[in-house]
Inverse folding.
C-alpha cells in the first residue's frame, strides 16, 4: 500500500501545484488553457511520434492479448457514454469525454512503475506493446466520435488528417523503416517536447480543478471511476484467463494496465473541445485516489502483491 502511495504522490503533487498556483493567483486563468493547448498540439503528438517510431512491435501479434484488453475498453467506453447520456443528460463531445475518461488508463505515472515492480523484466514486452498502441487507439477513437457526429466525410477526413494527435500517430508509424537515418538533434528536440507533456498536463489539470472544483458533482465521476477501476480490469481478467491462453505475466500486465485510474488525456481532450472538463478533471482525481486501494487489491488477487 505504501509503494502505491509513493507512485501516485508525484501526480497529486503536480496537480496540487497547479491548483495552489491558481488559488494564490500566481498564474492567470488563461495559463491552464495555454498549457493544455501546448500539450495537445505539440507535446503529446511528439510523445506519440517517439513511442510509435521506437516501439518494438513483434511480427506475430498476440491477438488474445489485444482482444482481452480492448474488448474491456470498448464495453466500458460504451457503458460510460450510455450512463452519461441517460442518467446525467450529457450530450455531444461531453459523451465522448465520459467514455474516454472511463476507458483510457493513466499509464505513465501509475501503470508503468506498478507493472514493472510487479513483474520485472518479464512484464516489459507486454507492457511495451500496450504502451505503443493504447493512446493512439483511444485518441483516434475519441477524435472520430467527436468529429464525426456533425461533419461530412470530406470535412471529417480533413479535420482528422490535420489533427495534431493523428499527425503524430501517422508520422511515428511512417518513419519506422527509416528511423536510423533521423539525425540525433531531431530526437533531442522530440524528447524535449515529449518530456514536457506530462508535467504541463498535470499542472494544467490542477488549474482546471481550481476553476471547476466538483462543479459536475460526484455522481458521474463516481460512475466513471467505478467502470475504470472495477469493471474494466474484471472483463480483461475473465477474457485473458478464462477465454484465451497466454502466460500469467501477459494476462497480469493486461489486468493491471486496465486497473489504472482515468488518464490525463481525457482532460486534455475535454479542454481541446471545451466540453466535459469538469467531469474529466473530477474523474481523474477521484479515480487516482481510489486506485490506491483498488490496485493493491488487484495485485493481491493476481498473486504479485
Amino acid at each position: 500500500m505504501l509503494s502505491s502511495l509513493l507512485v501516485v504522490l508525484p501526480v497529486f503533487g503536480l496537480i496540487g501545484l497547479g491548483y495552489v498556483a491558481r488559488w494564490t493567483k500566481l498564474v492567470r486563468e488563461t495559463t491552464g488553457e495555454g498549457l493544455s493547448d501546448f500539450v495537445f498540439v505539440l507535446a503529446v503528438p511528439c510523445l506519440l511520434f517517439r513511442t510509435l517510431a521506437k516501439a518494438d512491435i513483434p511480427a506475430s501479434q498476440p491477438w488474445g492479448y489485444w482482444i482481452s484488453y480492448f474488448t474491456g475498453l470498448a464495453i466500458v467506453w460504451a457503458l460510460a457514454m450510455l450512463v452519461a447520456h441517460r442518467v446525467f443528460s450529457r450530450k455531444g463531445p461531453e459523451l465522448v469525454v465520459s467514455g474516454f475518461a472511463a476507458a483510457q488508463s493513466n499509464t505513465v505515472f501509475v501503470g508503468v512503475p506498478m507493472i514493472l515492480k510487479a513483474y520485472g523484466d518479464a512484464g516489459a514486452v507486454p507492457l511495451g506493446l500496450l504502451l505503443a498502441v493504447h493512446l493512439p487507439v483511444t485518441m483516434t477513437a475519441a477524435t472520430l466520435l467527436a468529429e464525426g457526429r456533425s461533419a461530412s466525410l470530406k470535412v471529417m477526413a480533413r479535420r482528422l488528417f490535420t489533427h495534431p494527435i493523428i499527425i503524430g500517430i501517422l508520422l511515428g508509424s511512417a518513419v519506422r523503416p527509416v528511423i536510423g537515418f533521423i539525425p540525433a538533434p531531431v530526437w533531442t528536440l522530440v524528447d524535449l517536447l515529449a518530456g514536457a507533456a506530462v508535467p504541463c498536463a498535470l499542472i494544467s489539470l490542477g488549474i482546471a480543478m481550481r476553476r471547476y472544483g466538483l462543479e459536475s458533482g460526484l455522481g458521474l465521476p463516481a460512475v466513471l471511476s467505478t467502470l475504470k477501476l472495477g469493471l474494466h480490469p474484471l472483463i480483461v481478467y475473465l477474457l485473458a484467463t478464462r477465454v484465451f491462453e497466454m502466460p500469467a505475466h501477459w494476462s497480469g500486465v493486461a489486468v493491471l494496465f486496465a486497473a489504472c485510474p482515468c488518464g490525463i488525456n481525457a482532460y486534455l481532450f475535454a479542454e481541446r473541445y471545451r466540453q466535459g472538463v469538469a467531469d474529466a478533471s473530477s474523474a481523474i482525481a477521484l479515480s487516482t485516489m481510489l486506485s490506491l486501494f483498488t490496485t493493491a487489491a488487484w495485485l493481491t488477487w493476481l498473486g504479485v502483491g
